[in-house]
Amino acid sequence: MKNFIAILAVIFVLAMPATLSAQNKFGHVNAQELLVSLPTYKTAETQLQAFAKKLQDAYLKMQDDYNKLYAEYEAMQKDPNTVKALMESKIAEIVDLEKRMQKLEQSSEQQLMEKQAELLKPLEESIMNAIKAVAKEGGFTYIFDSSAGSLLYSPDGDNVMPLVKKKLGITTP
Known about the structure:
mainly alpha; Protein Binding, DinI Protein, Chain A; two-stranded parallel ribbon; about 75% helix; rod-shaped
């Protein structure tokens, strides 16, 4: 009797995933590919590059200023008539500029990440809305992002990418 119950329990456990998966419909999409294929992505990317260029130009200007200050300091060092207080003042200027350059470098990284998030958020929202609409229309219970790298196998029939592209108005060549 105990063996019968154990066998029945094993059969139940083995049969459970089959009944659960029969109720669920799974699909997959490459969200990164969708993002890059949006026409508005190129605009966002161009804006981000322009913003990064402004930050880089500001840093390069500071670097030029640093080089000039350092050259002045070296010239002062070579001149035996240079007053010690002037050299100390020049060193203080150089150290202050180094600190400002480090601060700019750190804040630039943060600003760049924030700008990227700001520019991509509306695009990501439109992709999510399209995925949700396709899932609802197609009766999908779950749609996985294959660009995340966690999807190990999927039949082509479950790829909802063409449906989401259609929903977003993206034409595929």
